[in-house]
Each structure stands twice: as structure tokens, then as C-alpha cells.
């Protein structure tokens, strides 16, 4: 049996000195070495070689399934389910005609051994490989499927310990790891990913949280420094041009506001002249015009005194209102 250890591409460290000795392999990657990983990810070992031919440089660790226990438990559940069909003879007859009892063990084995899980740089990757179903004919094969849950999307990773019985008499012996994200939950307490039958579910959970913290620290610290430096350099190069453009826009806005006030005061002045015969109305209009004139003076004095502000001052000084 071959045993693999973290990371990337397996290379033999030492040859077996005896036929019974296990060959051990060291995984190395110049860019992503053991020293860069969390403590929980170092010196991991596994027997599942499914991911050897796939993106091996992306693999952090592979976790083995307890296929023997999974097959034994699911076979017992299947037999108990078939036995329950004795209460429904038509259904039992269809199962017998379909050779379900004969292919039960084979289907359980095909289903169990098609499951593989690994932790990659990007997240948890769960794969169900292509497998036979039903009678094992090519026309009944189930296609391969895979799912990756990124570390930054994970909101919870917990372990569901086995307890109680299934079908009243079969003890539950398989541990389930539940992965939640922001999109999971809802009706039926839907889980983003459920992995049942791992040999080391506790180690899997610890490494998931360790990788989540590691990726968060990398993205929030060193991973963003080059982007921040480039952004600061670009902002420094364009700061003068942006400041001039902003000053010009502010000057134009103030000038437009003063023109609008000027037009309003002209209308007020005309209305004051037309109401000259009424003392109260004329006095009220004069007071309004005076207050508005003071507002214009305040706005004119608050206009920036730079090159762009000079144009605005010219506009404000030309407002001969009263």
C-alpha cells in the first residue's frame, strides 16, 4: 500500500528495505512548501491516490474514506429495506425481478468507492467519480460529478457523531461532516456539503478551519500589499491633475449658483418696483433683496482664490444687484 504526504507531486524519499515496508513519499512544491502551510496541514498522509493525476500542485491534503465500514453499514440498511418489502408483495416482486438482492452489495461498493475528498488551495473539493449502477451495464453508468466549496464562503464546519439506530436494529457507525455556507440552510436545513464516512473527521475539520484562517490572513495582509502599493503609486501620479479638475468643477458650480441667485434677485427687484405704492410690501421686498445680497457676498468671498476661483470672482463681482 502506498502512503502519500503533503504536498504537490510525490517523489520517493527512500526505497523499501523489505517487502512488507510501506513506501513513503514526500510532496514538495517550490512555490507552496510545507513551511508556508498552517501547522495542521503539515506531515499529512493518505492512501487515496485518486487525485494523483489531477492538479497535484493544488492539493493540500487528501482524506481517506473508511470504505469497508461504509459498505458494511449501507449493505445492512439495504437488506433491511428489502426485508420491509415483504409487507408490500407487489414492490418485493418488482425488486426480485430486477435482481436487486443480487446486485445490492455491488451497488453499495460502487457508490462508496466513487467518493473522494481533498483540501486544495481554493477550498474543499468533493468528487464522485464515474461508477456503475443497477446491473453494472455501461448504459446504466452514473457520470462523474465534483464540487468545490471555497474557504472564504464557509460559515460553519461541524461534525455529526453517530448515535442511535437505523431501521430500528442497525447501529449508526458513520460520522458525518457538515459544511455550511451563507446560501445553505432554509427549509429542511439544507447543507452545502455533507461528507460521511471519513476515517479522520476531526482532522478534516481542524484543517478546514486552519486553511480558512490562513487564506483570510494571506488575502488581508501580504496578498493585498502589491495591489495597495500599485494603487498608491497611481494615485500619487494623478493627484495633481485630479486636484486641478476638482477645483475647476467647484468653481463652475459656485458660478452657476451665483447666476441663479442673481436671476432671483432681479425678479425680486422688479416685483419691489411694481409694488412701490404699498409701503409694507415695498419694505418687505427690500428686506428680502438685502438678505439675498448678503448671501451672494458670503458665497463670493468663500470662492477658492486660485486660478479657477478667479473666474468665479469675476462672475460674482459683475452681479450688480442693488
Let me know the largest β-sheet: 4 strands, antiparallel
The number of strands is 13
Distance between the termini: 101 Å
Global morphology: elongated
**Estimated radius of gyration:** 38 Å
- Which structural class is indicated by helix and strand composition? alpha+beta
* Percentage of β-strand residues: 15-25%
Order of helices and strands: EEEEEHHHEEEEEEEEHHHH
Number of helices: 7
Oligomer: single chain
Summed over residues and divided by their number, the pLDDT gives a mean of: 76
Which range best describes the helical content: under 10%, 10-25%, 25-40%, 40-55%, 55-70% or over 70%?
A: 40-55%
Could you characterize the architecture of this molecule?
This protein has 322 residues and is of the alpha+beta class. It has 7 helices and 13 strands. The chain has helices at 67-84, 89-97, 100-112, 201-220, 225-274, 279-301, 307-317; strands spanning 4-5, 9-14, 24-28, 45-46, 59-63, 115-120, 123-128, 145-150, 154-160, 165-166, 170-171, 176-181, 193-196. Helix 5 runs antiparallel to helix 6 (279-301). It is elongated.
Question: Tags for this entry?
Answer:
322 residues, alpha+beta, four-stranded antiparallel β-sheet, three-stranded antiparallel β-sheet, 13 strands, 18% strand, disordered C terminus
Task: Summarize it.
With 322 residues, the protein is an alpha+beta fold.
Topology, element by element:
Elements: E1 4-5, E2 9-14, E3 24-28, E4 45-46, E5 59-63, H1 67-84, H2 89-97, H3 100-112, E6 115-120, E7 123-128, E8 145-150, E9 154-160, E10 165-166, E11 170-171, E12 176-181, E13 193-196, H4 201-220, H5 225-274, H6 279-301, H7 307-317
Helix pairs in contact: 1-3, 5-6, 5-7, 6-7
